């Protein structure tokens, strides 16, 4: 460890949990808001639960005064450290008043109270509240809040907090507003906004007839891009009533949009705070994927009102209790809006690309980790997306009806309290006769199980026996794994592709056999239908995959068979390329793509997914030593060969699906554009770039413009440079669109991408203080396998340089970027040592944050 480095935090362990010594029944907060010196007065009504001192969390707070039951305390009555305020000698029930000064304008971490644009915003999850006032900043302390905000009226005319606005007024140039939240909540759900914003307003009448006032607060001029967010909010409110019987519980629901935000959005009670990227959308500025992102995140945060706010988490180890469940709920919501199969396909595609990769590397952790250094590092795809898969497995195992019953029990038993994963388990177990005990292993053990199978058919007995085996490789700290409880939704297909049997098997042992009767011919099994468990199924032959891709009645498995088939042939092509052989297109792949394309009109959204070849990162995951250049070469060669061979079909599909209005964002229009742009991609790969150029010029719809630009970006000549120049001129004033301008350049496969990204880090619009911009350029570049892993190591250097600087202002984002080098051991020795050197350089930095320390040290361990 370098001299001067702050000592990394000590690990927090689940096993060490103890209940709070004091509860807070009520808290009154009074803010006098000033960018350079905000004064926070807090009055806490405390009640003892256990023997011991009162220990409050607090960071970066200047304590101005402290009173106990109205009496000022001298410095001998408390101990103040960098992160806490402790009072030894206190009664069992008392009132504590503190007054602190904080400096929002220097808060670049974007946690606690900070400035963005010209206004004040907060982000308290998970541990930001302690940067606002002294408090037991842990989710199992739930209090009722009364909040008064005071600010300069000319600069901050809008004052918002949680709950209901019970009083407001003006005093000279200052205005003030009081907000009261009747529901007890943990400190991480506190929020305030004081800014110059305008509202788009609407209302929603709940199933029981209460009227809820809805407001979406944005910067003046952005009101025209809030329509989709408002639609999504009302739609989600209705869906949660219809699907889970859950009604909104306040008279007002506000959303405020902020352009500097570390994450996507935050579920603060009655006052969600959103990254502008998940609020603002119009067909001219946002892609279809952006529209869906807005809808998904609006729904997600709204659903947290019950799964997160009313029922919260006992401690941060239980994070997936609210996140896995709420992701499951938003996935179900989205599946109900468009095609359920296509939604499942895109969710699984991203689960495999991110979560499976993390689960196979040094940063792997269970859905409920046992230990952490910095909880901010645990907002991961494992907690969120794998957590959602675990919830889905409960439902697959016990059925929809029992699952709904279990949800009712979970809410009823845990309302207004801080729950654990065991509480969720108990509710589900109470709703079914199936013994679910073993499902808990999904929370405890990291890693992706690998499932293989054997089969035998006995024509005399007319039986078919399927033997399934599971194995999970070691992960950090977990050398030996116990078997998981794995629901295997399956079907047996006859030679014509008809289902002769369907069932959900439960694989709970390392190896289990299942015998099926009255099976006269050897059937083809279709396993893990609709991706019934987050596992890797191994050992399917190409012939099988080709059959399932053409015939399976399960749409998900049809897509998956085609993906697995494509993966096998592309990996073979990588080997051939490494051996110096020329690329040859596999006949089966050509046949499958041809069939998909010719049948596209039947379900264009599905066809658009099925036409996409497995991503470079997915191919990389299947190689023992990743060769990013060979992968890129082969994948592009395949796209080119398919584009050339099927040129007429792709042109025809392009023309057939082109006729949708630029402003149409219906499911049909989105699917048509997706198919058309998939065709455009193949045609461009085959060298027909005129079409992309023309589409770029005519674009009135951001989906089409961007799809065209992505193809033009591959050309390293003036056509590309002109396109980026004109896009910049048109959109320089729109931050979210400018983010796209950065990220398309960073994702490009053109030979000069690295140099361009290096230059873009010096661009006047590049800003390390804005997380969206950092993700758009640096995050996107680190996800561009062949460019980031350029053999010289210059890509690693660029990333590490960014992390180095960023760690000083925003450690959360710096730590997240560090994960891009987490899989360094999977590369050749030259790249390994280049990445390792950068990780070591980061680790040796003076005053490295605990956030980045945890990620870099675990990556190297
Ligand atoms: N609970 C939010 C995610 C979130 C987490 C951390 C944040 O700041 C550090 C912000 C938001 C969600 O699941 O949407
Ligand atoms: Zn969430």
TrEMBL record:
It comes from the Bacteria. InterPro entries: Aminopeptidase_N-like_N, Aminopeptidase_N-like_N_sf, PepN_Ig-like_sf, Peptidase_M1, Peptidase_M1_dom, Peptidase_M1_pepN, Peptidase_M1_pepN_C, Peptidase_M1_pepN_C_sf. Residues 447-538 form the Peptidase M1 alanyl aminopeptidase Ig-like fold domain. Keywords: Aminopeptidase, Hydrolase, Metal-binding, Metalloprotease, Protease, Zinc. The keyword Metal-binding applies. Pfam families: DUF3458, DUF3458_C, Peptidase_M1, Peptidase_M1_N. It catalyses: Release of an N-terminal amino acid, Xaa-|-Yaa- from a peptide, amide or arylamide. Xaa is preferably Ala, but may be most amino acids including Pro (slow action). When a terminal hydrophobic residue is followed by a prolyl residue, the two may be released as an intact Xaa-Pro dipeptide. Residues 230-442 form the Peptidase M1 membrane alanine aminopeptidase domain. Residues 543-861 form the Peptidase M1 alanyl aminopeptidase C-terminal domain. The keyword Iron-sulfur does not apply. One of its GO terms (molecular function) is aminopeptidase activity. Its cofactor is Zn(2+). It is an enzyme of class 3 (hydrolase). Residues 97-189 form the Aminopeptidase N-like N-terminal domain. Its EC number is 3.4.11.2. Belongs to the peptidase M1 family. This is Aminopeptidase N. The gene is pepN.
């Amino acid at each position: 460890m370098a001299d001067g480095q702050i000592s990394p935090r000590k690990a927090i362990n689940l096993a060490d949990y103890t209940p709070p010594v004091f509860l807070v029944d009520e808290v009154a907060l009074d803010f006098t808001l000033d960018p350079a010196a905000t004064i926070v007065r807090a009055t806490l009504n405390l009640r003892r639960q256990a023997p011991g001192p009162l220990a409050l969390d607090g960071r970066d707070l200047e304590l101005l005064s402290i009173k106990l039951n109205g009496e000022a305390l001298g410095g001998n009555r408390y101990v103040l450290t960098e992160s806490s305020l402790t009072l030894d000698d206190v009664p069992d029930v008392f009132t504590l008043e503190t007054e602190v000064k904080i400096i929002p304008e220097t808060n670049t971490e974007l946690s606690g109270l900070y400035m963005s644009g010209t206004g004040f915003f907060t982000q308290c999850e998970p541990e930001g509240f302690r940067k606002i006032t002294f408090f037991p900043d842990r989710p199992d302390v739930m209090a009722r809040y009364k909040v008064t905000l005071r600010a300069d009226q000319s600069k901050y005319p809008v004052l918002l907090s949680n709950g209901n606005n019970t009083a407001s007024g003006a005093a000279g140039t200052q205005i003030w507003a009081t907000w009261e939240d009747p529901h007890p909540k943990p400190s991480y759900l506190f929020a305030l906004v004081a800014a110059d914003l305008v509202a788009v307003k609407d209302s929603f009448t709940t199933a029981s007839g209460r009227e809820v006032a809805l407001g979406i607060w944005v910067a003046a001029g952005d009101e025209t891009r809030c329509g989709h967010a408002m639609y999504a909010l009302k739609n989600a409110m209705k869906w949660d009533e219809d699907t889970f019987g859950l009604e909104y519980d306040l008279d007002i629901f506000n959303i405020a949009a902020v352009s500097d935000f570390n994450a996507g959005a935050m579920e603060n009670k009655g006052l969600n705070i959103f990254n502008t990227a998940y609020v603002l959308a119009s067909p001219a500025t946002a892609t279809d994927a952006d529209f869906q992102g807005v809808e998904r995140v609006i729904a997600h945060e709204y659903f947290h009102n019950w799964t997160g706010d009313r029922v919260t988490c006992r401690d941060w180890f239980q994070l997936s209790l609210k996140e896995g469940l709420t992701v499951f709920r938003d996935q179900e919501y989205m599946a109900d809006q468009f095609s359920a199969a296509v939604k499942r396909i895109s969710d699984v595609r991203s689960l495999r690309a991110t979560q499976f990769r993390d689960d196979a590397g040094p940063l792997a952790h269970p859905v409920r980790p046992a230990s952490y250094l910095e909880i901010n590092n645990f907002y991961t795809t494992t907690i969120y997306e794998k957590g959602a898969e675990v919830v889905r497995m409960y439902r697959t195992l016990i059925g929809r009806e029992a699952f709904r019953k279990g949800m009712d029990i979970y809410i009823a038993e845990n309302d207004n309290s801080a729950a654990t994963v065991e509480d969720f388990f108990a509710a589900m177990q109470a709703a079914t006769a199936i013994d679910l005990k073993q499902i808990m292993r999904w929370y405890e053990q990291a890693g992706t199980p690998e499932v293989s199978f054997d089969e035998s058919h006995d024509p005399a007995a007319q039986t078919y026996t399927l033997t399934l085996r599971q194995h999970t490789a070691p992960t950090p700290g977990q050398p030996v794994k116990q078997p998981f409880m794995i629901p295997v939704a399956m079907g047996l297909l006859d030679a014509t592709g008809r289902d002769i049997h369907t069932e959900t098997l439960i694989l709970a042992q390392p190896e289990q056999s299942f015998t099926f009767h009255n099976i006269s011919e050897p059937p083809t099994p279709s396993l893990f239908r609709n991706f019934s468990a987050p596992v890797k199924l191994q050992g399917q032959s190409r012939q099988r995959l080709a059959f399932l891709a053409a015939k399976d009645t399960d749409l998900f498995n049809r897509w998956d068979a085609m993906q697995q088939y494509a993966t096998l042939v592309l990996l073979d092509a990588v080997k051939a390329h490494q051996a110096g052989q020329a690329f040859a297109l596999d006949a089966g792949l050509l046949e499958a793509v041809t069939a998909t394309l010719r049948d596209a009109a039947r379900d264009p959204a599905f066809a658009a997914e099925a036409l996409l070849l497995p991503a470079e990162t997915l191919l990389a995951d299947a190689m023992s030593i990743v060769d990013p250049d060979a992968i890129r070469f082969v994948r592009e060669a395949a796209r080119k060969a398919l584009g050339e061979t099927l040129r007429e079909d792709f042109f025809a599909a392009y023309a057939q699906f082109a006729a949708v209005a630029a402003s149409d964002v219906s499911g049909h229009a989105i699917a048509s554009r997706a198919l058309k742009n998939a065709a455009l991609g193949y045609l461009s790969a085959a060298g027909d770039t005129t079409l992309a150029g023309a589409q770029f010029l005519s674009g009135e719809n951001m989906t089409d413009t961007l799809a065209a630009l992505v193809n033009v970006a591959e050309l390293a000549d003036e056509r590309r440079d002109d396109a980026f120049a004109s896009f910049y001129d048109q959109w320089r004033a729109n931050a979210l669109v400018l983010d796209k301008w950065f990220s398309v350049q960073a994702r490009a496969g053109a030979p000069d991408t690295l140099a361009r990204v290096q230059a873009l880090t010096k661009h006047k619009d590049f800003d390390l203080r804005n997380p969206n911009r950092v993700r758009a350029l640096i995050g996107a570049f680190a996800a561009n396998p062949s460019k980031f892993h350029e053999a010289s190591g210059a890509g690693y250097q660029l990333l590490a340089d960014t992390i180095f600087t960023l760690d000083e202002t925003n450690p959360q984002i710096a730590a997240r970027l560090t994960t891009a080098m987490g899989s360094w051991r999977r590369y050749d020795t030259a790249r390994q040592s280049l990445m390792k050197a950068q990780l070591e350089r980061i680790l040796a930095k003076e005053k490295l944050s605990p956030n980045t320390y945890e990620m870099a040290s675990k990556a190297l361990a």
